[in-house]
Amino acid sequence: MESLIAVTGAEGFIGSHLVEALVQDGARVRAMVQYNSFGSWGWLEALPSDVLAQVEVVPGDVRDPGSVAGLMRDAQAVYHLAALIAIPYSYQAPRSYIDTNVTGTLNVLEAARQYATPRVIHTSTSEVYGTARTVPISETHPIHPQSPYAASKAAADHLVSSYALSYDLPVVTLRPFNTYGPRQSARAVISNIIAQLSAGVPTLRLGDMTPTRDFTFVQDTAAAFLAVGRAGAQVLGRTLNAGSGKEISIGDLTEVIAEVMDRPVQIQQEEERLRPSGSEVRRLVCDNQELRNLTGWQPRLALRDGLARTVDWFSHPHNLERYKTGLYNV
Question: CB within 10 Å: which end of the chain, N or C, has fewer?
Answer without folding.
Answer: N
